[in-house]
Design a protein that fits this description.
There is one protein chain. The protein has 2 domains: 9-210, no CATH class; 223-282, no CATH class. It has 10 helices and 6 strands; from the N terminus they run ααβββαβββααααααα. It has helices at residues 9-16, 22-35, 87-100, 170-180, 186-194, 196-210, 212-239, 244-254, 261-268, 272-282; strands at residues 44-46, 64-69, 74-80, 115-121, 133-139, 147-158. The chain has a 6-stranded mixed β-sheet, sandwiched between helices.
Amino acid sequence: MEQIRAYSDIVVKYLLGREETKDILLSFINAVMADSDLDLIRSLELKNPFNIQDFRGDKLSILDVKAVDETGRVMDIEIQSRGDRSFANRSLYYWSKLYSSQIMEAETYKKLKPVCCINLLNFQLLDEIDKFHSCYVLKEKEEPDKILTDHLILHFIELPKVRANMRNTPLEMWSQYFINEGGENTIMKTLLKDEPIIQRAHNEFKKFTEDERLRDIYESRLKAQRDHAYFMEVARDEGIEQGIEQGIEQVAAKLFDILDDEAISEKTGLSLDHVRGLRARQK
């Protein structure tokens, strides 16, 4: 089995998304807040804690960590291993879903609380920006010191931009941890020696790697994500003139003779009902 990476979405969910690891989550979020000169938080309530049963048969869903701080502010941490510039649009869309889901149709807008999305990325999103951590808020165009509202905050932490000598701030140290965990290099040894909270995270990471069920889920999820990326690429090549979904459907149809519906659904990202409907139309 290949080395388990700490920046995998399921590992991040395990490290940050459990009641017994809320101190790790709090430390990481405050490292992000401090790096942007934003108010630190004192306490958190997890809204979607890690549950191994959630991964049974669901290998492509978004894994994030949702929490609410003592003021009611919504915090969402998500890890992405691959993507392109369109991820910025996706992040804004996901923020909008979290924001709008706070109230029902008849409720007042005064109930809305800020939503802060922290995106931990293992790819480079912003080529025009050298720094590895960017924070976006709503500002007046010609007077950037005038912020319209603090209800929208988007953080992007681009791990490929982190250099080996970046170990001076809490966020730099956390970023080094996600990059180097699982190895025995000098950076990791220094982090473990100097930072008790990193040692805590390391101990939890070892628990993950020693759990056979979790390792199996990690491998299954990683394979499903790779297969999905491959079939999406094939679908784009074949369906560029007909639309992406039609291209994916064409790929799925070519698999009917060699795979069952569940396997096709897993590899293409189409729902099981969608695949069954396609097969029925082929008969």
